[in-house]
C-alpha cells in the first residue's frame, strides 16, 4: 500500500497540536502507534486481490534499475529482454532463482507464485512489442 505523504503530515500535525503538553518521547511513541493502527486498518479493508501487484508494477519496482522500463537498458550485465529466447518456463525459473553470477537477485522467496507468473508474463511481452 502506498501512503499519502500529505495525509501523514496532516495526522502528525493534528497529533502535535493535540498533545503539546506531553514530552516529545511520549508524543513520538503515541504518534507512531496511532499511525500504525491507522495504516493497518486502511490496508485490512482491501481484499487480497486488490493488494496483488500487476506484472508491470512488479517489473517497475524490481527490474527497471538494470533492465530499464522497456527491457533494453542492459545495465550491470542485464540482458536485453526484447531479444531473449528463453522459454516461458526458463524465464520463470530465471526470475525465481536469479542469476548470482550475473548479479540478478532471486525473487522466488520475495514474491508469491502468482506474482512471479505475472512478472514472467510481463517480461515475455517485451518480445511481442519488437
Topology diagram in text:
Elements (H helix, E strand, L loop, with lengths): L4 H14 L5 H21 L3 H4 L3 H8 L1 H4 L20 H10 L15 H16 L2
Please characterize this protein's 3D structure:
With 130 residues, the chain is an all-alpha fold. The protein has 2 domains: 43 residues; 77 residues, Cytochrome c-like domain (Cytochrome Bc1 Complex, Chain D, domain 2). The protein is elongated and about 65 Å long. About 6% of the residues have low confidence.
Structural class: mainly alpha
Query: Briefly, what CATH class of the largest domain?
Result: Mainly Alpha
| Main β-sheet description | none
**Order of H and E elements:** HHHHHHH
The average pLDDT is 80
- Our estimate of the beta-strand percent is under 5%
In the predicted model, the low-confidence regions spanning at least 5 consecutive residues are: 44-51
The radius of gyration computed from the alpha-carbon positions, rounded to a whole number of angstroms, is: 21 Å
Number of helices: 7
Distance between the termini: 33 Å
Q: What is the fold named in CATH at topology level of the largest domain?
A: Cytochrome Bc1 Complex, Chain D, domain 2
Descriptors for this entry?
130 residues; 2 domains; mainly alpha; 7 helices; Cytochrome Bc1 Complex, Chain D, domain 2
Task: Give a quick rundown of the structure.
The chain is mainly alpha-helical and 130 residues long.
Amino acid at each position: 500500500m502506498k501512503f499519502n505523504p500529505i495525509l501523514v503530515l496532516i495526522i502528525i500535525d493534528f497529533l502535535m497540536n493535540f498533545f503539546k503538553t506531553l514530552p516529545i518521547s511520549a508524543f513520538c511513541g503515541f504518534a507512531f502507534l496511532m499511525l500504525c493502527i491507522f495504516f493497518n486498518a486502511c490496508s485490512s479493508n482491501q481484499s487480497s486481490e486488490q493488494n496483488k501487484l500487476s506484472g508491470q508494477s512488479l517489473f517497475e519496482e524490481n527490474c527497471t534499475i538494470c533492465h530499464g522500463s522497456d527491457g533494453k537498458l542492459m545495465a550491470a550485465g542485464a540482458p536485453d529482454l526484447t531479444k531473449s529466447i528463453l522459454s516461458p518456463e526458463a524465464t520463470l525459473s530465471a526470475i525465481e532463482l536469479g542469476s548470482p553470477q550475473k548479479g540478478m537477485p532471486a525473487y522466488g522467496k520475495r514474491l508469491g507464485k502468482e506474482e512471479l507468473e505475472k512478472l514472467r508474463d510481463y517480461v515475455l511481452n517485451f518480445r511481442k512489442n519488437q
